[in-house]
Amino acid sequence: MAVRTIEWRNGTVVMIDQRLLPSREVYRVYRDYREVAQAIKDMVIRGAPAIGVAAAMGLALGMRTVRGRNLDATFERLCKTFAATRPTAVNLFWAIERMRGVFAAHRGRSLEKLRSVLEQEAIAVHDEDIAANRRMGKHGAALVPEHATVLTHCNAGALATAGYGTALGVIRAAQEAGKQIQVIACETRPFLQGARLTAWELRRDRIPVTLITDNMAAHMMQRGLVDCVIVGADRIAANGDVANKIGTYAHAVVAARHGIPFYVAAPMSTIDWHCPAGAHIPIEERSPREVTHMGDRQLAPSGVRVANPAFDVTPAELVAGIVTELGVARPPYRRSLARLGRAEPATAERRPSVRRHRRR
Predict the structure, then answer these.
(1) Do 191 and 48 fall within a single domain?
(2) Final residue of a domain: which of 107, 134, 161?
(3) What is the pLDDT of residue 12?
(4) What is d(CA 81, CA 277) in angstroms, rounded to the nearest whole number?
(5) Residues 6+ apart with CB under 8 A from 85
(6) Which of 74, 183, 299, 329 has the fewest beta carbons under 10 Å from its own?
(7) Residue 194 near residue 153 (C-beta atoms within 8 A)
(8) What digits encode the pLDDT tens for the residues 309-360?
(9) Same domain assignment for residues 335 and 205
(10) Shortest CA distance to 252 belongs to which of 274, 221, 287?
């Protein structure tokens, strides 16, 4: 993908505005950390790994205007601002804790040096994400059969990460390995990430893609038109339960009914080691307008009650494998994920614990 999801450029944060795709490619330049936080809330940028990168860069950006007084309180205020943006994607909290660790380690140095190391760390979060995605892709490509049709949900591509992608990274790597594959992309109501973003990415990469509405997926599996399902994740509990875009659980259930392997691709930073099971994962509830309207056009009667949970949780027993940059975890996940976690080269300071969030 030639598109850049997010980058640090001359003391600013630059993002492609994903709300306008595929019609327009517009890059926003942010000079204030509050604008970056709002961009995360408004889904200018979305996808768990990309949100983590945005938070890291937003914190570095916020420190550029800080004066020398009450640095600890000021930095903590910045962290709380970003922690309040989206509750489900654990990469957000992972990135905040990582930046907190760097701040604490360099707190006694000059303000100029502190700003510099925070900027360097934010850039490292970005670069490491791309490298992790490429390693993940190679591990996952081995799971994709020759001439396979892969069904995916939402957007877990370059646009959901710093680049290359998680689920789409596996698909890209399989294509790069010479496998002749094609993709079925579910539209992903109500925000249409599959229709607007996944289809756009795959078309740009010249990977054959067929777009379907979400309620067509079961029919496709029943007809034998799907060889495997690969999705991303916004948070993975220690037992292997997976939170991902709403509708993922339904695909997993139908895939299990028809004996189709269901894979999840996500970096190690998406694993919440302090969350024992999916029931403890907070589920974001988004604006009813996303359901009742399509852009400015109203689709539903005024005043109708609306539920709009942004994510659901797929139980671990429905997941055939979790693809990470360190390898593929298989059931039982509490054991296999922990084994990968112990093998991770990062130090404890670079992989800080994430506070558990109570179920809402």
Answers:
(1) no
(2) 134
(3) 97
(4) 27
(5) 37, 40, 41, 51, 55, 92
(6) 299
(7) yes
(8) 999 999 999 999 999 999 999 999 999 999 999 877 653 334 433 333 333 3
(9) yes
(10) 221
Cα 186 to Cα 241, 247, 283: the distances in Å are 22, 10, 21
pLDDT at res. 252: 98
Residue 350 lies in a domain: no
Reported as a single tens digit per residue, the pLDDT across 191-205 is 999 999 999 999 999
Q: How far apart are CA 152 and CA 263, in angstroms?
A: 10
Backbone CA torsion sign across 279, 281, 287, 289: negative
Condensed to tens digits (0 to 9), the pLDDT of residues 14-57 reads 999 999 999 999 999 999 999 999 999 999 999 999 999 999 99
Q: How many CB atoms lie within 10 A of CB 110?
A: 10
Residue 236 to residue 60: CA distance in whole angstroms: 27
Sign for the CA dihedral angle at 341, 342, 347, 349 comes to positive
**What pLDDT, on a 0 to 100 scale, did the predictor assign at position 282?**
96
Q: Is residue 67 part of a domain?
A: yes
Residues with catalytic function: 234
Take residue 311 and report the two structure tokens written for it. 């994510």
Q: What is the DSSP string of 249-312?
A: HHHHHHHHHTT--EEEE--GGGEETT--SGGGS---B--THHHHEETTEE-S-TT-----BSEE
Count Cβ atoms below 10 Å from residue 106 Cβ, excluding itself: 16
Q: How many domains are there within the chain?
A: 2
